[in-house]
Please model this.
Amino acid sequence: MTLSKERRIGRHATLLVLADDKTEQQDLIDRLPWKSCNGKVGSMDSQKVVAAIETAAKQTGVIQSGVYRETHALYHATMEALHGVTRGQVQLGSVLRTVGLRFAVVRGNPYESEQEGEWLAVALYGTIGAPVKGLEHETIGLGINHI
Model:
């Protein structure tokens, strides 16, 4: 079971979320043999972050709406990424924190063997802090889960 540099799904999701403009994002997407989507979300409610990512993944065909295991895998990858963003305490508004995040979701098989199946990577990058403009700092999170 080998994981080559070109097949590192988390690396690709992170590069996609960090891309500065649409052209750079499209170049990354075109190079990938996998499905992906990206977007933005800002909220004091972690449920809204999860919902925005799930909605984008379903609307772009990264996951299938009626297949529970795909939604379940996305949920776990998203929660893992949120743990990174929130430093292990997945709380926002209840502790007076807000986030402004970009997200990227990548779906594919990071292994050489097709038998390993597909995986999902969710990368989050943006700001977190008090709900006052200028009182935030950068944050990043990555979650990976098998389907």
The beta strands are 35-43, 98-108, 119-129, 136-146. The longest helix spans residues 68-85. The first strand starts at residue 35 and ends at 43. Residues 99 and 128 are 4 Å apart (CA to CA).
